[in-house]
Amino acid sequence: MIRILKSELGLTLRILFRQPGFWVPTVLFPAMLYSFFGASMASGGQGAYAMASFAVYAVVGVGFYQFGVTVAQDRENPFTVWQRTLPGNAAMPWVARVVASLIFVMVAVGLVLIAAWLIGGVTVSAPAYTRLAGACAMAAVPATLMGTALGSVASSRAAVPLANLIFLPLSYLGGLWVPPIALPSGINALSVWTPTRAMGEIAWAAMDGRAIPTRFLAVVLGWALLSGAITWLAQRRNARALFG
Amino acid sequence: MANKSTEQAIRARGLVKTFGAVRAVAGVDLDLDAGQAVGLLGPNGAGKSTMLSMLMGLRPPNAGQVTIFGHAAGSPAARAVIGATPQSAGFPEQLTPRELLAYAAAHHATPRPSNDLAEAFGMGALMDRRMAGFSGGEVRRVALALAFVGTPRLVFLDEPTTGLDSAAQEGFRTVAHEYVRQGGAMVLTSHHWDEIEAICDRITMIDKGERVLDGGLDAIRARTRVNRLSFALPQGRTPPDWLRATQGPDGWQAETTDSDALLRRMAAENVPFQALTIRPLDLKDVIARIRKEATQ
Q1: How far apart are CA B240 and CA B246, in angstroms?
Q2: Are B157 and B189 in contact (CB under 8 A)?
Q3: Complex ipTM, two decimals?
Q4: Beta bridge mates, B202
Q5: pLDDT recorded at residue B3
Q6: Taking the model in full, what pTM does it have?
Q7: What is the longest distance spanned by two Cα atoms in chain A?
Q8: Which one of B71, B107, B108 makes the best mutation probe of the A interface by having the most chain A beta carbons within 10 Å?
């Protein structure tokens, strides 16, 4: 069991790490965007919030790009069909994917924190870092599920543009690039229902040491359930086509 | 202790698979014992791939059942004893053959050492190169090796030598023979008749989802003891009508079940034949003849 998981993880990580054109932008992009836009907010007393926003942005990005794209690619790949003839649990490749994505999330978030420290001059207390890590872990679940839902529905060719089409507006609408207070009021009314805003609110509360806002926790949960349901339905349809 | 069904490598009964209104496989039986190789034949779209995927446990049949050494196809116990060649498309090209073999080996209890496989399939120089840029034949060797990683008791080889050069094809036949001789069971699909003849002792032919021919190669040949005469004639001469000869690219040809009598009559009538050869029909032609007789 452990041996199989190790081999699945080794395979997944090797394939990903040997495509630097894929993973470098994925893990670097949030830190870069932070440096351009987030760091400038550091002076206005909003530094910690901006750092938390871009940390959430990194989590969602990895979920969308790593999961959305690789799930879509694997789905159409004859090699994954062959993998099913091997003995071992069919869930293992998924576990390996989740672990690989957590590694990417940690690197991407870590780079945002480093950029915040080096460029924005933002540091927070150790408990605040821990709370932020907790908020990111919480955000990783719906982010992963949303990416998987996208990858289960979209073709491999459509996955990247669709991820852009959904992820970038969601980041803006969620107030991850500019604080919600700076959003036009119409946009803000929409914003409170987005998963990115809800994840952001949880991360901002973590920065303040406030309790997790229940309303936004419910929004996150709702998106997670919706994505999970889409994934389940789409994967069942795909399995019928391939293995039915 | 062990009953017949657990000894059988494959026991398939009444397999049916429908896709919407299409009956891809319509009630096919298949039996295969250890130490046997069966060639699964049929034109494109006949239902071969669907049949294979049910035997490998990738698709559940709509009706009928398959057991692999007594275990339901697709069950962990069945998957533990089979090996299959992946299709050539979609290999993770960031990996080396050694890494892929190690990956597959981790799934099996008693894997074969990678270096053994490298030697058996002529991959020595390829083992540590990433597969991006491999030729079709090189990818095929890796695919073949992957089928044998887990010291399987039953292998499914789908078009195993497509793209291989003749030396590699020869190498594969040696490996396949040795595997079957040592008690391995094999299901082979191929468009090369000589390969089927060289490796398989049985064939099962599927057409339009139904089994149209099944049996040992010797028995199938014995059903039609037909020889083919090929000969040339001097310019301007035609063979007598009773010979029912046809002109092919290499001269005249006639088929007969009694080549002795035919030859005697040709000699008696002074047919001026030259460069005469007599040989049994190719397997391909034997089968074509049997099928023609069956449909008449």
Answers
A1: 11
A2: yes
A3: 0.83
A4: B38, B216
A5: 46
A6: 0.83
A7: 59
A8: B107
